[in-house]
């Protein structure tokens, strides 16, 4: 080795040892004939010291050529520091350098390699290898490593087998857009990259693997938003001979294990809520339950007062922003403007202010006397000092708008703490959703999700929107971190499902014939789940964006700015693949 | 859960318990009013028993509808068996069935789900999910899981961090052919799938990650041989501030850890051999060292006897097949024909038989008297009973041919035992090899491999074939299981290397500018290695082919026979990608 110790290793107990360290120059200070060098590596920072009066003049001269990010090797004696630095683990000692070698000089980095950097997004993406040097970013990836480790420890301990499924698979029309790979050996044909190993893990159940998992890259060629990547990682799991309840317990166990081992947090039992309740109480299938502020529906108490805005609305629904009665008129106007922005899209915002003195004041006083307002306020258990915010309109829209407002109020009131974690199971999702544009039904989860047995008759009667699925999502702090379902494992039901989704029998056979065939050779009941691993890491890291939990992310145009990819390829390559571009 | 226990769990201690098991019907026997069912799952086999006289008639009737591979749930009481089966772990008990449910019936599988199956390759690939049910195949994948687990345990314990590198990267002209992925968002441009995460792991070293690993899928669009797959898995590793010796020790440690934990074998220290010695002694850079039979070069003792075949040859080289003097003339003729096959390509085979009575007989007696033959035999330390086999010709060809013959003799003599494991480091590979056809130099390992410092001057003088690399391969039982090198970490040397490989400065910058730039911002000395994980698993499993250590392999045309991929895609997909096929 080029070193005897790392830069995070030496302590007072090592004093008088001769050591060799390697690392990056974090900073050089030259003060009154004494040169201090902070030497950095992944493990920490150690202070090197050279003294004009006692050190070799060649070494001193060389130390004076150093600047930030030079890679050096330094030999010297460990000495106890006079003025200790209790901010770093090695702060009690320093190295009296006797020899110094520059292993590689460094140009000045284009931005500061510090927790707070002066580099913008683009430059940090281009020089990602320098951005990764910053503690904050590297720690995210160390957290990710630990999350993966602990995931494996938990699942291995539960008899799961990790099996690698193929990356070069087959394009299917259902779901998101596939990335495809032209096959040179089979001209005119293409592989697709998996959006998930769904069918393969189901086949592994048919094979009797019983408990499968994989931490696996998946791919979706969709337009990117700030927080989506064309390639992402899943913790993908499947179990045989289980019911929904078994999955909930097993994977609640995983999440609690991760919180315990990675963050030393004792996560209590994860509460459960139906999709219907989540929509009714939070207007969202992924409610942030770090705070209450549940929706209260007001049709029964707010209609019939000749207030046309209320009377004509399908739904009148509100939240109680406790303690916000002090909001000024200006603040309320601003909040009204906020909900009217196109991103939220509400027509307006009604409110009832429950003043400290017990009086009530609303934005619709013309139609409601104090008793009628009190009647509404009671539905919220409102107290003096509270502010009730009300949205009206078409039910689904009003709920969605009020969800936005609730989250905004939660943020404004500091109720969404990044170091607090609230997990939730959302259950009983609808099996199908109707695509207005395409005029057909789509699988809400995917076509392999099983309807609840008691709702299967509804598949026949055509009341498809009412069919509930044995599907579940895990939500943490308002973010969906995982989801799954009990699967269909019998050919006739799977075939019926494809029919409902508009597949002809021939199409279904062509795309998923292998799976339906497999169901005829002894397929066990099975169920599974997949967690978004990038997202899970970012939540554990208390961050909003997944990007800094991925070593080499792509930008919003799907470009890797560092390696400048995608790029054109040689004509020869295209000729071999028998493709051409049509621009 | 649908079961209380697995099929591998119950013992005599569980007698009298009421249990519920789930699994596949391995076999049903109906004998004298008693029905025996072997119920199988991943964990084992448990015998179920029903008695016409004591069991419920409905249950009996249902049991009689069962056949192979039905998935059932059975409830009953654990009873001690009268006639125990010591071949299975549950052989002391059986389940007296009181209730039975068919969870899913099964059609008759197209081949036997047994260790020895009657299914040919094609049918087993098409119904891979059934082939995976066979113990032998599933155990291979369980071995693979354990290998991955133990690899991670070892590397985690050595402070390595697993980092995921991207799958959508950039096509580069060096190396094998890339799979490419058209980019919809960047029309006319393509991603490539990685042949290895080489540049990314080097960048992680520049980032200061210090010790990186990843068990990672890689891709090569090459014509497939029996034992190559378009997608394969590597254990990919890199370390900073190390020399070659550190890598050898660290990863010898990994291999020994794997042998110990997975196979309970104490692998001794791994011997080392230079590439030059490997070629001289075995005619191969991946010698099978489970047996000796080293080459002996005979030019000094075999030339000058007026035997034109010897005198005109560049190299006369032989092996001693100990104890084979009894080979008949017929056997020797057959062996001669064997080396003359096009796969080997020798012109002929000369031999010296060291008879039991101490006399010597050769195929070239006309030119050599007994003393001259004895002179040759002495170079092999041959004894009565030995057979010396000699190949002549152009040196490289003769060595390659004799390597084939040596391996063949090793196999014939039973010296290549599948349960014996001999590892070897091969060191000091040439940095470059000359491509006659292309009339240029190629990197033997890859363009990032560092020459030995003492050989760097040779890069200038142009004696490029003599430049040795700091590169190393690990060989087990004659198979290369891993290889790596100390890397170039300074821009000027990297640039010089690209120049030697025929890159213009512009091309080098376009393809690898990001890496050369990175070298200027403080790149540490670093080195790494990658193991072929599929291959490593197959060697641990004592098998020749990697295919049965991959859950869903592709055939020799790169097809997944099960899902029938690759396949054509919709015109709409091609339109969106702005590509078309040109057949």
TrEMBL record, chains A, B:
One Gene Ontology MF term: aspartate-tRNA ligase activity
Record field: catalytic activity: tRNA(Asp) + L-aspartate + ATP = L-aspartyl-tRNA(Asp) + AMP + diphosphate
Top-level enzyme category: ligase
SUPFAM superfamilies: Class II aaRS and biotin synthetases (SSF55681), GAD domain-like (SSF55261), Nucleic acid-binding proteins (SSF50249)
Cellular component GO terms, alphabetical: cytoplasm
GO biological process: aspartyl-tRNA aminoacylation
Annotated EC: 6.1.1.12
InterPro entries in alphabetical order: Aa-tRNA-synt_II, aa-tRNA-synth_II, aa-tRNA-synth_II/BPL/LPL, Asp-tRNA-ligase_1, Asp-tRNA-ligase_1_N, Asp/Asn-tRNA-synth_IIb, AspRS_core, GAD-like_sf
Residues the record lists as binding L-aspartate: 174, 220, 445, 487
Region described as Aspartate: 198-201
Gene3D superfamilies: Bira Bifunctional Protein, Domain 2 (3.30.930.10), GAD-like domain (3.30.1360.30), Nucleic acid-binding proteins (2.40.50.140)
Localization per Swiss-Prot or TrEMBL: Cytoplasm
Keywords: Aminoacyl-tRNA synthetase, ATP-binding, Cytoplasm, Ligase, Nucleotide-binding, Protein biosynthesis
Domain Aminoacyl-transfer RNA synthetases class-II family profile positions: 143-553
Binding site for ATP: 220-222, 229, 480, 532-535
Subunit record text: Homodimer.
PANTHER family, A to Z: ASPARTATE--TRNA LIGASE, MITOCHONDRIAL, ASPARTYL/LYSYL-TRNA SYNTHETASE
Role: Catalyzes the attachment of L-aspartate to tRNA(Asp) in a two-step reaction: L-aspartate is first activated by ATP to form Asp-AMP and then transferred to the acceptor end of tRNA(Asp).
Family membership: Belongs to the class-II aminoacyl-tRNA synthetase family. Type 1 subfamily.
Name assigned to this protein: Aspartate--tRNA ligase
Organism of origin: Emticicia agri
Organism lineage string: Bacteria, Pseudomonadati, Bacteroidota, Cytophagia, Cytophagales
């Amino acid at each position: 080795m080029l070193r005897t110790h790392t830069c995070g290793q030496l302590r007072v107990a090592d004093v008088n040892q001769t050591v060799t360290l390697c690392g990056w120059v974090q900073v050089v200070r030259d003060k009154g004939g004494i040169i201090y060098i902070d030497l950095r590596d992944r493990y920490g920072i150690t202070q090197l010291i050279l003294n004009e009066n006692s050190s070799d003049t060649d070494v001193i001269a060389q130390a004076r050529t150093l600047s930030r990010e030079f890679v050096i090797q330094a030999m010297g004696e460990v000495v106890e520091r006079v003025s200790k630095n209790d901010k770093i683990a090695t702060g009690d000692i320093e190295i009296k350098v006797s020899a110094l070698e520059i292993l590689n000089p460094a140009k000045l980095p284009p931005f500061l390699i510090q927790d707070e950097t002066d580099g913008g997004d683009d430059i940090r993406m281009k020089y990602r290898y320098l951005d990764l040097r910053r503690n904050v970013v590297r720690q995210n990836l160390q957290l990710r490593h630990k999350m993966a480790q602990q995931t494996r420890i938990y699942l291995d301990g539960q008899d799961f087998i990790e099996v690698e499924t193929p990356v070069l698979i087959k394009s299917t029309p259902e779901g998101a857009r596939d990335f495809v790979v032209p096959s040179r050996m089979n001209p005119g044909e293409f592989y697709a990259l998996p959006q998930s190993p769904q069918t393969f893990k189901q086949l592994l159940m048919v094979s009797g693997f019983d408990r499968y998992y994989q931490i696996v890259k998946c791919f979706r060629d969709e337009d990117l938003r700030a927080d989506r990547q064309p390639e992402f990682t899943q913790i993908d799991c499947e179990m045989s001979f289980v019911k929904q309840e078994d999955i909930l317990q097993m994977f609640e166990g995983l999440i609690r294990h991760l919180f315990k081992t990675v963050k030393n947090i004792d996560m209590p039992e994860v509460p459960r809520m139906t999709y219907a309740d989540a929509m009714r109480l939070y207007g969202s299938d992924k409610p942030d339950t770090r705070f209450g502020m549940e929706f209260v529906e007001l049709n029964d108490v707010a209609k019939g007062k000749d207030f046309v805005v209320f009377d004509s609305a399908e739904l009148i629904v509100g939240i109680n922003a406790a303690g916000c009665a002090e909001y000024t008129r200006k603040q309320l106007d601003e909040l009204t403007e906020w909900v009217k922005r196109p991103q939220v899209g509400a027509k307006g915002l009604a409110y009832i202010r429950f003043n400290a003195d017990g009086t009530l004041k609303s934005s619709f006083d013309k139609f409601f006397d104090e008793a009628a307002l009190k009647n509404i306020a009671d539905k919220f258990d409102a107290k003096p000092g509270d502010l009730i915010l009300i949205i009206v309109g078409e039910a689904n829209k009003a709920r969605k708008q009020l969800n936005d407002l609730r989250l905004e109020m939660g943020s404004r009131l500091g109720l969404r703490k990044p170091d607090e974690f609230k997990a939730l199971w959302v259950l009983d999702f609808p099996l199908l959703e109707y695509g207005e544009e395409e005029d057909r039904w789509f699988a809400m989860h995917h076509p392999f999700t099983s309807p609840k047995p008691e709702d299967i008759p509804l598949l026949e009667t055509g009341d498809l929107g009412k069919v509930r699925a044995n599907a579940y999502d895990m939500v943490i702090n308002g973010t969906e971190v995982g989801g799954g379902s009990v699967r269909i494992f019998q050919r006739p039901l799977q075939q019926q499902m494809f029919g409902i989704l508009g597949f002809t029998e021939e199409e279904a056979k062509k795309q998923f014939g292998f799976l339906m065939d497999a169901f005829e050779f002894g397929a066990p009941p099975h169920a599974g789940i997949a967690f978004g691993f990038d997202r899970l890491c970012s939540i554990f890291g208390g961050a909003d964006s997944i990007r800094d939990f991925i070593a080499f992310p792509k930008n919003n145009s799907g470009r890797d700015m560092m390696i400048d990819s995608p790029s054109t390829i040689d004509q020869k390559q295209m000729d071999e693949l028998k493709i051409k571009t049509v621009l």
